[in-house]
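Hey, I'm writing a tutorial for new members on how sequence and structure tokens pair up, and I'd like a real worked example in the thread rather than a made-up one. If someone can provide the structure for the chain below, I'll link this post from the tutorial.
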Amino acid sequence: MSYTTVELFAFGFTAFLVGFSGAIVPGPMLTVSITESFKKGYKAGTSVVFGHVAAETVMVVLLVLGLSQIIGLKAPFIAICVIGGVFLVFMGINLIKSGQENASIQTTAEKRTLAYGPVYGGIITSLSNPFFFLWWFTVGAAFVFEGLRLAGLVGLAAFLIGHWASDFSWYGFVSIFTDRGAAVAGDRAYRIVLLSCGVFLSLLGVGFVCNGFLNI
């Protein structure tokens, strides 16, 4: 197995670009990062990513062990869509309720907790999103196996470092921007964000459920 430092760097940087292009697409993780950053400050985005990384670590281990063999099977996709979609709707409704209850940045920040918290939020929004699995069973699997082919565990590490660097950089930026905006915008903007994110999560969840039933 022969490889160079340049090859590893190029491979890791490619993983970073691919991961970043996926991270900037609006989704459940972005929603949770924004709402948590309003309440807990700029570190919330990093906490959400730690939860996301935990979920992805499990996926990588399963892929290496051979879980990628279920690619193309309809039953797992349908189950993930329906179950994940219902959970996203549940999360969205809770956010909408919070936005309608005259939520305050100050009072919410004092509580410092959510039912699931930012780390668990990262895990939940990852595992409840069917496209998380689809990405890992296709693009992610290709990178995992290419990394192993290129340089074994070192190649796999190069992919993971590049991929996770994209998540931390993007969601860290989102959290800092949101945290500073919260200090200026005040409680009214906070409630608008809660409502908007709640509606978005609910609609996204309904879309996942519909997508699942359409594939039956």
